[in-house]
Amino acid sequence: MNLSSDKDQTIKDFGEQWLQYPDNKGYYGSLELFSDILSPFIKTDEITGCRVAEIGSGGGRIVNMLLEAGAEHVIAVEPSEAIEVLYRNIRKPEKVTCLRITGDQLPAYGNLDYTFSIGVLHHIPDPAPVVEAAFKALRPGGHFLIWLYGKEGNSLYLALIRPLRVLTKHLTHFMLVSLVEVLYWPLVLYIKFCHRLPLPLRGYVLSVLEKMSPKKRRLIIYD
Ligand SMILES: C[S@@+](CC[C@H](N)C(=O)[O-])C[C@H]1O[C@@H](n2cnc3c(N)ncnc32)[C@H](O)[C@@H]1O
User: Fold this and answer.
1) 3-state secondary structure of 82
2) What DSSP designation does 154 have?
């Protein structure tokens, strides 16, 4: 495996994704969802007044959630073309520093209260230097919060996705968007069935996926 070209390809693919699905509206960009993501570890009000960084900011929904939670300043790290989408989406630009760098290049500020990386590290072929940089940016006693895709409880999902990936990783962006349309309606049906049957991923489907707008459900399939 060529780690460097995989890393560059991942960044390029994400750039296309965020240009295609730029908005952060509704539950997808809400403090309610952020609270759900963080709840086992911290409450959103613990972010009030803090200096924080987010590694892998994409279209900026987490940056805006951090601002809404009261962060004093946010360092937003995004290496892809999505940096343009990020600039456009940020609600309080005076409180945000956007850096178009990879996570391992995050400066060693040494004074941040929190670094966050939500849905990012599992996409990076060699995440160790990113983790190291995240810790070096923290003040003594600061915290690094990571959200990753879970393997546990996702065996059916993985059984479906892995064979599909053999095909999808060779598809162009346009073909992927078309495939999303094909998969979208079975997903809508699946959500409906989850109300009546104890299907796999029912908890996630009803508590998260169903609350997303049609556009955001399409983004999740694409992702
Ligand atoms: C699934 S998205 C998550 C975006 C955002 N955190 C969110 O939850 O909406 C992953 C992001 O990580 C970025 N990324 C990929 N490789 C990276 C790297 N080496 N360093 C930092 N970010 C990276 C991608 O460009 C993409 O925007």
Assistant:
1) coil
2) -
Question: Ligand 1: distance of its center to the CA of 140 in Å?
Answer: 26
Per-residue pLDDT of the chain (223 residues; tens, 9 = 90+): 577 888 999 999 999 999 999 999 999 999 999 999 998 899 999 999 999 999 999 999 999 999 999 999 999 999 999 999 999 999 999 999 999 999 999 999 999 999 999 999 999 999 999 999 999 999 999 999 999 988 887 888 889 889 998 999 899 989 999 999 999 999 999 999 999 999 988 998 999 999 999 999 999 999 8
Based on C-alpha coordinates, what's the Rg of the chain? 18
Q: Which atom of ligand 1 is nearest to the CA of 14?
A: 25
Q: Which residues line ligand 1 (CB under 6 A)?
A: 7, 10-11, 14, 55-58, 61-62, 77-80, 82, 102-103, 118-120, 123-124, 130, 223
Tell me the residue type at 145.
L
Q: Are 33 and 156 in contact (CB under 8 A)?
A: no
Burial bucket for residue 208 (CB in 10 Å: 0-12, 13-18, 19+): middle
Whole-model pTM over 0.90: yes
**Phi/psi at 75 (nearest 5 deg)?**
-95, 120
3-state helix, strand, coil in the chain (%, to 5): 55, 15, 30
CA-based nearest residue to 102, from 71, 125, 84: 125
- The token pair that represents 149 in the structure block: 């895709």
Query: How many angstroms separate the alpha carbon of residue 26 from the centre of ligand 1?
Result: 20
